[in-house]
Structure formats: structure tokens, C-alpha cells
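sry for the spam today, last one i promise. C-alpha cells for design, 225 residues
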């Protein structure tokens, strides 16, 4: 699944990476892909301040339900904002000072096509992914000249446990999201992350918007009968 050119010159052998949300989906696939390149990968831990990671992949995130604002559950809103925005900020704040001190590192945030285009019922989730996009863009200013790269990998329709989480365990409803399409796989997104972090160190891939061939936008999906 992972195909990298011979020009890849960023050596990950022996370096350390922290991948959040790595028990399934994009995070698990990314952790496995990075580990396959000889990088030590941590996927959990409560004392991040004691470690100095070369690569941080802020992958942890979720969407909950598709209710309109007038009937939305504010508890769902809080969970999305706490995980998708505040979680990313807090982990980055913990890890970043060590990277600045060493003068090298790479932060990859996992955004979404929903950070570019909204859709019915996705107000809060889209807001969190617009926030990820804004935080990523601002972070490049904050670390300019400090040898740190910052990338945003933004997937479209991808078949993971995402929809099952969104619909709170309703597998039948979750399956309808992907019916008649050939969506991205978690490994496709992981491949994009690995491509970003294996560029030469003078190259920063700022954003990768990746969607399946069956998708043109957040709300334009080709479905076969």
C-alpha cells in the first residue's frame, strides 16, 4: 500500500512519533505505516512532557450525529469541540516546546474536507475542522524559522469506524454512508501522512486534500446502483 520514491530523504529510522487516536482507523493505520519505516511510535501516554517526539500526528477526532442546530445535543457538541479542537491544542502545546528547543520536528494534523465545505447537520463538526485548518495555518507562523514543519491531511469519504461512532453504534445506518461507493481506506490516509513526513527536510507539504474518485466535494458523491 505504501509506495515512496527513491528521493525520499527524511530518515525516520530511530526517531520518535506520537500518534493520537491510534486505536483504530486513520490513527492505527498511520502508526503502523510510520513504524514500518523504522520510527519508534507511541500511541498513548499521560506524560508527554517527558518525551521529545520528532513527529506528532494529531489524529484523534470524531463526529456525533447529524442533527440540525435547533435539535442538536449540546453534550455532543462539547465532546466534538473537546476532542477535535482542544485535544489537538493541548497535545501540541505539550509537545511543541521540546521541538522548538531542538530546532526540528513535524506536526501533522488530520483535518477533513468538512474544513473546506459544510453540509446539512454538520455545523459543529465542520466548525471543529475549520478550526483545525486555522490552527494549522497559524502554527506555521508561530514556528517560522525554527525548523519545524506543519502539515494538514484532509480526507473526504473514508470507511473507518467514523460513521459508526457518529451514529452511536448504529451499524446499519453507518453502512449507508458508503453504499454504492468505493471510499478511501484508512491506509490511504496513512499513506498521505507518511508521504508528508518523508519529504526532504526543506520541503513542507502544507495541505493534502484527499478524496476517493467517487467524490467531488463534501456533498457530491457518485453512488452505483
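last one done:
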Amino acid at each position: 500500500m505504501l509506495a515512496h520514491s527513491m528521493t525520499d530523504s527524511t530518515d525516520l529510522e530511530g526517531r520518535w512519533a506520537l500518534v493520537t487516536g491510534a486505536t483504530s482507523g486513520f490513527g492505527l493505520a498511520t502508526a503502523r505505516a510510520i513504524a514500518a519505516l523504522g520510527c519508534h511510535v507511541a500511541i498513548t501516554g499521560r506524560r508527554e512532557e517527558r518525551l521529545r517526539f520528532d513527529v506528532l500526528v494529531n489524529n484523534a477526532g470524531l463526529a456525533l450525529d447529524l442533527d440540525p442546530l435547533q435539535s442538536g445535543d449540546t453534550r455532543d457538541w462539547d465532546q466534538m469541540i473537546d476532542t477535535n479542537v482542544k485535544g489537538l491544542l493541548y497535545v501540541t502545546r505539550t509537545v511543541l516546546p521540546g521541538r522548538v528547543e531542538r530546532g526540528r520536528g513535524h506536526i501533522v494534523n488530520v483535518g477533513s474536507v468538512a474544513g473546506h465545505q459544510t453540509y446539512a447537520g454538520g455545523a459543529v463538526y465542520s466548525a471543529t475542522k475549520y478550526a483545525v485548518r486555522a490552527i494549522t495555518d497559524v502554527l506555521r507562523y508561530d514556528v517560522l524559522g525554527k525548523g519545524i514543519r506543519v502539515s494538514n491531511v484532509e480526507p473526504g469519504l473514508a470507511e473507518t469506524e467514523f460513521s459508526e461512532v457518529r451514529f452511536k453504534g448504529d451499524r446499519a445506518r453507518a453502512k449507508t454512508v458508503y453504499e454504492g461507493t468505493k471510499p478511501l481506506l484508512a491506509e490511504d490516509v496513512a499513506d498521505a501522512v507518511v508521504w508528508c513526513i518523508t519529504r526532504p527536510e526543506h520541503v513542507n507539504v502544507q495541505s493534502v486534500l484527499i478524496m476517493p474518485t467517487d467524490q467531488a466535494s463534501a456533498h457530491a458523491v457518485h453512488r452505483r446502483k
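DSSP finds six helices and eight strands in the chain. ok im logging off now
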